[in-house]
Amino acid sequence: QVQLVESGGGLVQAGGSLRLSCGASGRISRINDMGWYRQAPGKQRELVAAITSGGTTNYADSVKGRFTISRDNAKNTVYLQMNSLKPEDTAVYYCNAWALQSIWLPPREYWGQGTQVTVSS
Question: Binning pLDDT at 50, 70 and 90, where does residue 17 land?
């Protein structure tokens, strides 16, 4: 099994910054895409940012220019640097990863437990 553990959420004022981290552990052969999703109350979960194993990134339009996703493949860790935070960024942020436990098995999708980010106005 693969576990994803997030950290770094919290309460911040509008205009502030937070850095989220997510480490993957367990039986891992390789991790392909990693990403961050968020879900605000009463809304569907949405993609915030994603990064391939080669470093290609993709961002939601609402966070372009403010958030930066990065990863450390040696540590099986993905980061989300969030700057110029807005109240509308308030949500539970979930880490996501497509991981292979063996070269003989197809990749599976894994989720973290979520970390709360609250931006006050």
Answer: very high
Contact 48, 37 (CB under 8 A): yes
50-55: long-range contacts, CB 8 A cutoff, minimum separation 24: 50/96, 51/78
User: CA–CA distance from 75 to each of 31, 66, 71, 80, 100 (Å)?
Assistant: 11, 25, 8, 15, 15
Residues shown for the chain: 121
Handedness of CA 81, 83, 89, 91 (dihedral sign): positive
**Reported confidence tier of residue 103, pLDDT bands at 50, 70, 90:** confident
How buried is residue 100: exposed, middle or buried, by Cβ count under 10 Å (0-12/13-18/19+)?
middle
**Pick from 50, 30, 46, 26: nearest CA to 38:** 46
User: How distant, in Å, are the alpha carbons of 30, 73, 98, 102 from that of 105?
Assistant: 11, 20, 12, 5
Tokens 């009463």 belong to 42
**Amino acid occupying residue 38:** R
